[in-house]
Amino acid sequence: MTPDRLAIKSSRQRFFRRDSFPARIFARLAQAILAMLGASVLVWALLPLAGGDTATRILQARGVENPSEIEIEAVRLELNLDAPLVNQYFIWLGRAVRGDLSISFQSGRPVAEEIARRFPATALLAVVALGFSIVLSVSAAVLSAAFYDKLPDKIIRFLTQAGAAMPSFLLGLLVLQFVVIGFGWGKVVSGSSVADVWLPALCLAVGRASDWTQILRANLLEALEARYTLVARARGATRWRVLLLYALPNALIPFLTVVGIGTGALFGGAVIIEMVFSWNGIGSYAVGAIGARDLPVVQGFVVVATLIYVVSSLLVDTLAALIDPRLREAKSRL
Predict the structure, then answer these.
(1) Helix, strand, or coil here: 259?
(2) Is the pLDDT of residue 8 over 50?
(3) Start-to-end C-alpha separation, the chain
(4) Measured between alpha carbons, how far is 141 from 214 in angstroms, rounded to an integer?
(5) Which of 81, 163, 187, 219 is the most exposed place for a label (fewest CB within 10 A)?
(6) What is d(CA 12, CA 6) in angstroms, rounded to the nearest whole number?
(7) What is the DSSP code (8-state) at residue 80?
(8) Closest of 127, 137, 100, 96 to residue 306, by C-alpha
(9) pLDDT digits (tens, 9 = 90+) for 188-202
């Protein structure tokens, strides 16, 4: 075998090794696809498990109080409700993959269009809240680790414990009462623009930032006791220099994983804040659909929330592996 062919064969073997970076990414992508398929079964099952005749509920939601048999049969044929359950699932899955999330029982409009119209408002709220969460948690964790067991550390620990324990809807109500009504900052009924997003996003970020601060603080304190930081201190580096240049970069790797998981939770947690601040996003739309038993809308919301969670986790895992060479070369058994 020629040297060129040997080199090609060797490169292929490295590429397809179980512990190689591409193989890890392919494995993580396969896990994400399986997770979405599993979630799709649970989401689709909301409709047949709801009880009663689905076609009758659809017509009643559209304002037809006493639908005739002809109308009921027409809806069944339209939505393939007479097909076996397995066939119904694959029909629904095929449509969902193409972006067709069925029709709203109430409005008779495509659920995908309704969600797409409201998604930018929810995305704006979640992205700003994510930015707040990262800035607050990193700043507070670094300050707490720098002044370990001193007054700033004790204050930050108290605030993070209180923030993690306080429900977001309660914080939102307190902000409305004392900040909006008391000081006149912001609006009681918010719109969905950048000018109105700051207070709702801050309320959404507090709980997540509190959890992330505690996690990053623990990682920083552990990194400060590692051998490489002790060597740096022995060579005369200040605590701040060691903290920012040595401990923080290493502590950010596990922190990124937490952020990836929390990003999906931010979209799901936006439901309560949207209701409190009358934010016109998909969260408030889903809550209204739950009250009206508009199951296709609920299904569509869960599909979007699950997709965001899976994609954000996949992206953060990939980013962490790119940043840390130890993760790129880690054995698959680890």
Answers:
(1) helix
(2) no
(3) 35
(4) 7
(5) 187
(6) 10
(7) T
(8) 96
(9) 566 666 777 888 888
